[in-house]
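MODEL INPUT / OUTPUT PAIR
PAIR INDEX: 1
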Amino acid sequence: MMENNITDIKYCLYARKSSEQDERQAMSIDSQLNEMLEMAKRDNLHVVDIKKESHSAKQSGQRPVFNELIKDLREDKFNGILTWAPDRLSRNAGDLGSLVDLMDIDKLQQIRTYGQSFSNSPNEKFLLMILCSQAKLENDNKSINVKRGIRAKCEQGIRPGPSPLGYYNRSFNGIKDSIPDPERAPIVTEMFERAAQGQSGRHLKHWLDEIGFRTRRDKYVTLSQIFEMLNNPFYYGDFIFGGTLYKGIHEPLITKALFDQVQEQRVLPQKAKWGSKDFPFKRFLSCYSCGSSIVGEEKFKKLKNGKFNRHVYYHCSRAIDYSCKEPYVKEAVIIEDLLRLVDKLAINRSDCEPGLLVAINKYSNMMLAADPRYKQQEAFHGYARYVLQKGTDFERTRLVRNLKVKLTLHNYSVSSC
């Protein structure tokens, strides 16, 4: 029974619809508004504000419009709520507690729904709490049932969600599965074969862009997408969901052996921190064709005994021209060209690093002790030859960063600018 006069209550009409799949059947916001406004007119209810939002009510304190509703009630902007059903207000204990607290302090005098009324009386507040708790129970059970259904689907070999590139989803007799995309699947298979042969991610991207390979949304495949595909067991018949590996029933695009071969190509013997590798000539050379900087890259080839051979290559960074055609060059080739051009190399002793000058003098004294006929004016070029041939990466880096001359890399050869 209501103790307050209806005409003394100022109502806020609140309409909500969750954007989540489990509430797709709930009445739309517009329908809620129309029905409740018609009821307010029929029962002569004083509606002073209307609030609406599309947001889940599973978690407390997460709905901005509902939080505004609570704030306005505390500030006495209205003292009643008009809504379609109790579960529109709350599906969690936190928000329900806020409403009951407002009733206890007479800030909220009445909640009217389409078929019920709740005022500040023990029985009506208890009924409100039961109805909202029932809505929470339904949500919790739905979550459990959905997770159980997903696990069952995975155990049947069907991966939930969109299929990866190279497949598309098919619905047949009520069952959704993945089948190869006749247009993209052969290209994905060839991508794995190229990766197994040692082609890098950038090489693969360049090839895919050249042949016009695109995603289902008609976009070019990014480098990160390529690496993600190369690491996805879905392509050989398994899939990971929720951290568990399942055996799929879909048709594989590659064999497990090919997948493992790709992983071996991508594994380095040691994983160094980004930026910690020292490539001596990367700041010294520039690309002849486009003017971009030259960067270094190391490759590892696995030997039959399980060990790795390390090879260092330099190439255009393509910072200026992504389509630059300058090829990769072995570090050994660059060293040979620098030895040929060593007489053109020079340093400014006044600006030179002290450590380099000490090393040059030490080399000069060593050569003079071995051969008194040694000419000290040749110390720098002699030291440069020694470092290029037998020096460490640190010594080579220190040498080239003190050189005055700038060289370019073009068609497998180093030349003067």
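PAIR INDEX: 2
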Amino acid sequence: MSKPNRILVVDDEQHNLDLLEAMLESLGYHSVLARDGDEALSLLTPEIDLVLLDVMLPGIDGYETARRIREHPEYGYLPIIMVTALKEREDKLRAAEAGANDFISKPIEKVELRIRVASLLKMKEAQDIVRRHRAELEETVTKRTAALRESEERFRTVFEAAQDSIFLKNTDLQYTHVNPAMLRLLDVSIDDIAAKTDDDLFPEEPSRKIRDLELRVLAGQSIETEQTIVANHVPMTISCARVPMRNSLGEVIGICGIARDVTERRVKDVERTDQADEYPSEAMRSTLKQIRLAAGTDALVLFLGESGSGKDYLAWYLHDHSNRADGPFFSINCAALAPELAESELFGHESGAFTGSRGRKRGLLELAEGGTLLLNEIGDLLPQLQAKLLTFLDTQSFTRVGGEKNVSVNARIVAATNRDLEREAELGSFRKDLFYRLNVFSIRVPPLRERIEDLPLIVRNLSESLAEKMGLQEIPVIDGHALTTLRNYHWPGNVRELRNVMERALILCRNDRIGVNDINLIGKVDCEDSLVEDSSFSINLTAGMSMTDVLQEAKTWMVSEGLRLSGGSVKDASALLGISRDQMKYLMKTLRVRR
């Protein structure tokens, strides 16, 4: 049961106090008695629920007592009933100004007292509830404000000290906050970047790509990318994760990004040469011309050619000459995909999608955001994945394994195969609709035997690359006999087989020169006769011909033949003749020998 309400009764006459005490007790209330205003103020406690206050008091009167109660910092909320024998309107107005809630006239009737007291106590009870809720709310707000302040301080500490570059943008894609690591990454001051967009910081094409990507983030998608940008004339490859920031209503209010400079990692991961344009063969020059045409578009390219002919290298070449060159390049061999993991490798999976899947994994399609994905040996792609790939090619979106949400990706697909896909589509072993979708821009890659003129250049590039990998101090050169042996071989394994042959030759050679004995070929042909036939030289001595003239003709023939055997490469020809490049250039100039 709740305890009775306590009422403070203030009157200077004892018989009035006794009368009011008895009356209140009969109504179920406890009384606290006071003979004047000062005593009444001293008796105020949290247990007092109402004040019944006489006007005529010794010392401070009832009006002043009421005013002081109202001004009290703890009990100013107490309801006050003024008890008076006066009925003039001015007296009631004065009592209201002092803070009285109600009035009751003498002589006091019990029914009137019960009604007025009960009414004010209900009012006080409601006010107590409101006051208690307000106090709880203020306490909650205070705690949450303190927690928020602590969280902000913790976030600021992490934000400022983080080694990764962190930035925040608003819905207008303006930078609102950047940490010191971001300023160091871009080599700018806070004034250079605050309230700016990427249009103000980067060239038109990279900033356009960033803007298109971040509009997708503002639409609610989280995106991780790898992109090369130029800051202060220095190219950098940046790996960046962008996620939408939301308010308490779930509305997107901006973007949070975390970026990292991975330039060194990308340089180490890339193994390719930039000498494709130097190939002398007409077959390869024609192929490269087609690739450069395709590179100017986002068209799907299908490379057709024998195994080992360099389709993956040409896919790199296409990527490097496209407007996606600043994005990532990924390659996957469809023939090597394990059936149970193939879909996850390409499209990724959600946590718990299958036994052993812990956490969300991004597939190669997502990793290739803004760049290129090569599907090598696509003729071996599993049938169940062909339909999903076709859907992606049509919509540029997919769902991860075990997921429900569509993921949009801006990646270019390049495919390669050594199979006759058209024939396999007719036989039903490859989807016809996927073949027609892939066959937008087909490029045939010539086998090595059809471009044997390129062999000296390819040998030189392979020697340099392999020697670096093997940690050789000097790059061995290949002599004329060995080079002719390579030129006269039929190369069923194409460039891949040549690479293996050169790697073995670099291991076997005892000095700085690769000879015929270091070359190991399957079904090796005897090239000695062809070498003698191709490299013979004779001269008829005539009257008046000096030794200088003979030597001059011999030198001219040797320089010309060296250039012929090396496919026009001055470097390889000089190595073949055992002289320096400077000597070779001098002889070509003085003997008037052209490539």
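PAIR 2 NOTE: Residues 162-267 form a domain with the Beta-Lactamase fold (CATH 3.30.450.20).
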